[in-house]
Design brief:
The structure is a single chain. The chain is of the alpha/beta class. Strands 6-7-8-3-9-10 form a six-stranded mixed beta sheet, with helices on both faces. A four-stranded antiparallel beta sheet has the order 2-1-4-5, covered by helices on one side. The radius of gyration is 19 Å and the shape is globular. It binds adenosine-5'-diphosphate. The site of adenosine-5'-diphosphate has 12 residues, from strand 2 and helix 2. One of its GO terms (biological process) is phosphate ion transmembrane transport. InterPro entries: AAA+_ATPase, ABC_transporter-like_ATP-bd, ABC_transporter-like_CS, P-loop_NTPase, PstB-like. It comes from Tenuibacillus multivorans.
Length: about 270
């Protein structure tokens, strides 16, 4: 069974509750032990949008992102209430198969984290786990993923070299290629450019805007200019709450909440 066939069967079981909403979060609360990190979050994230999550440090941005692929529950003290629907299916239910979600929802982290393997093996790793063994198919997936991540030209003659030999910016695009190789429909990005120099940052920003044609992207960033440059919608988080969620242009030019205005004009944070 090919990866696409597996994914089709998952999609068939998951009819969309509301058109164009990929993640629908309702009254989500999350605690780390006694710390109430997410408070009554309500967010409907649209398909094929770039959604930016901004806010000061410690206000719950990463935590929220990690609830969307259920990574947060790897921490034993975590408790949640409320609901998140992915394409109409509640993902916080005990019965929900988290492996299905991880195939559909890829994640890119703050620091590039390639495996200590060759460039080729980094990208082929996911498809191999999903049972693809045919060398020709793997070659095609690797090339397409690297091309789609804007890095093919830089690494096509270095496929057998260890990924650790690439620059930080190249490693991050390689990690994005690795995510694309499993054919997700959502890509979560947790401050993906904060460890990169300005030129690499611009390359990743261009890449993110290009990927929007085929993927829904949710990006946490502490860089407001970046959110304003690349996103369609922006959510402003503060102390575990969503203060405001709107079209990026509106949120930055005409925010409705005083706290949003104070934050985007640099009065705190
Ligand atoms: P942000 O991404 O906005 O910087 P986080 O989601 O990382 O914020 O953190 C939100 C809150 O949850 C903070 O108070 C933080 O200290 C707490 N927190 C985050 N991770 C953990 C953890 N593993 N254990 C306990 N508390 C945590």
């Amino acid at each position: 069974m090919s990866l696409s066939t597996v994914q089709e069967s998952i999609t068939k079981e998951s009819p969309k509750a509301a058109e164009n909403i990929v993640f629908d979060t309702r009254d989500l609360n999350l605690w780390y032990g006694e710390t109430h990190a997410l408070k009554n979050i309500n967010l409907a994230i649209k398909e094929r949008d770039i959604t930016a999550i901004i806010g000061p440090s410690g206000c719950g941005k990463s935590t929220y992102l990690k609830t969307l692929n259920r990574m947060v529950e790897m921490i034993p003290t975590v408790r949640t209430s409320g609901d998140i629907k992915y394409n109409g299916k509640s993902i916080l239910n005990k019965g929900f198969k988290v492996e299905d979600l991880r195939t559909r929802v890829g994640m890119v982290f703050q620091k590039p984290n390639p495996f200590p393997k060759s460039v080729y093996e980094n990208v082929a790793y996911g498809p191999k786990i999903h049972g693809i063994r045919n060398k020709k198919i793997l070659d095609e997936i690797v090339e397409k993923s690297l091309r789609d991540a804007f890095i093919w030209e830089e690494v096509k003659d270095r496929l057998k070299e260890n990924a650790y030999g690439l620059s930080g910016g190249q490693q991050q695009r390689l990690c994005i290629a690795r995510t694309l190789a499993i054919e997700p429909d959502v890509i979560l990005m947790d401050e993906p450019t904060s460890a990169l120099d300005p030129i690499s940052t611009l390359k990743v920003e261009e890449l993110v805007q290009d990927l929007k044609q085929d993927y829904s992207i949710i990006i946490v960033t502490h860089n407001m200019q970046q959110a304003a440059r690349i996103s369609d919608r922006t959510a402003f988080f503060l102390n575990g709450e969503v203060v405001e969620f709107d079209d990026t242009e509106t949120l930055f030019s005409n925010p409705t909440d005083q706290r949003t205005e104070d934050y985007i004009t640099g009065r705190f944070g």
